[in-house]
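Good morning,

Attaching, inline, the C-alpha cells for the sequence recovery test we're adding to the shared suite. The designed sequence is right after.
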C-alpha cells in the first residue's frame, strides 16, 4: 500500500510540473542594433524580438522582452518573480548592468530555480561569471567562416529533433580554452574552419537553477533567424524551466530534528 501511495505521490508531482505556460523573458543589451545600420537591417527590432517572436509561436511558452536601457534594465522585482526562464544576450555593455539587478537574478536562479540561458558573447556577462566563478574567457576571431556543431549528447532534451550535427554558415569563431568549470552536461562541441574546437552547448546545475550556455549568436549575422538555432533555444527553455518542488525541500535555516527510527 505504501508503495502505491508513493507511486501516486510521484505521479501527482509529475502532473503539476509544467502546469501552465513557461514564462520566458528575453533580455538583450540592445545597443548594436541601434548603433549599426548593418545590424539593424538584420534585426530591425533587436535580437530579443527575433527570439521572442519565434518562442511566441509555441503554445506552452509565453514571452516578454527586457533591455538594458529600460528602468532596472526591464527586470523589476515583479518581472523577475514572473519569469521561469531568463534568456540573456550582452556584449559591449556588461559593465553597465547594475550589480543590484545581477544579485537579484543570482538569487532567483539559486534559491527559486529560475532557468538561465546565456547566449554567445554573454559568456562575459556579470551574471554568468558570478554563477561560474571563473573568468569565462576564450579565444576568438571574427572571420565569417562556417561553424559545425556536433551533438555529443544524443537523447539530451536540448538536442531534441536535431541530427548528428548542424551548421551555421557564417559566424565568429570561439575557441578553447573556454575558462568555465567543467559542465555538468555537454550537449554540443563546435568545429571551426580554422581548426579550433569549442564547447558550445554547456549545462550547469547551480543551487535550484539550471543554466545553459549556447554559443551561436554573433550580431552581424542572421543567426537568430536560423530555425535550428531557434529550435535549440526552444528546447533549452523547456529543459531549464523550473520544476515544482515539494515544500519539504524549502529548508531556510538549519533545524534540529528527532530521529525517525528508534536509535537508542
Ligand atoms: Zn560575437
Amino acid at each position: 500500500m505504501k508503495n502505491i501511495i508513493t507511486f501516486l505521490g510521484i505521479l501527482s508531482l509529475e502532473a503539476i510540473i509544467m502546469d501552465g505556460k513557461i514564462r520566458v523573458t528575453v533580455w538583450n543589451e540592445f545597443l548594436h542594433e541601434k548603433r549599426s545600420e548593418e545590424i539593424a537591417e538584420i534585426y530591425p527590432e533587436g535580437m530579443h524580438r527575433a527570439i521572442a517572436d519565434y518562442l511566441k509561436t509555441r503554445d506552452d511558452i509565453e514571452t516578454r522582452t527586457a533591455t538594458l536601457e529600460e528602468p532596472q534594465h526591464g527586470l523589476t522585482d515583479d518581472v523577475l518573480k514572473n519569469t521561469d526562464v531568463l534568456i540573456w544576450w550582452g556584449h559591449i555593455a556588461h559593465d553597465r548592468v547594475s550589480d543590484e539587478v545581477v544579485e537579484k537574478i543570482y538569487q532567483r536562479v539559486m534559491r527559486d530555480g529560475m532557468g538561465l540561458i546565456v547566449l554567445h558573447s554573454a559568456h562575459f556577462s556579470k551574471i554568468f561569471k558570478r554563477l561560474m566563478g571563473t573568468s569565462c574567457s576564450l579565444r576568438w576571431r571574427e572571420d565569417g567562416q562556417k561553424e559545425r556543431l556536433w551533438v555529443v549528447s544524443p537523447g539530451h532534451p536540448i538536442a531534441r529533433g536535431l541530427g548528428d550535427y548542424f551548421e551555421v554558415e557564417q559566424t565568429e569563431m570561439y575557441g578553447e580554452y573556454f575558462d568555465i568549470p567543467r559542465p555538468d552536461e555537454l550537449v554540443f562541441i563546435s568545429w571551426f574552419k580554422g581548426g579550433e574546437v569549442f564547447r558550445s552547448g554547456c549545462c550547469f546545475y547551480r543551487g535550484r537553477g539550471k543554466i545553459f550556455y549556447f554559443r551561436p549568436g554573433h550580431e552581424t549575422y542572421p543567426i537568430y533567424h536560423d530555425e535550428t538555432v531557434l529550435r535549440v533555444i526552444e528546447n533549452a527553455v523547456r529543459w531549464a524551466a523550473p520544476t515544482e518542488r515539494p515544500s519539504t525541500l524549502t529548508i531556510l535555516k538549519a533545524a534540529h530534528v528527532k530521529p525517525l527510527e528508534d536509535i537508542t
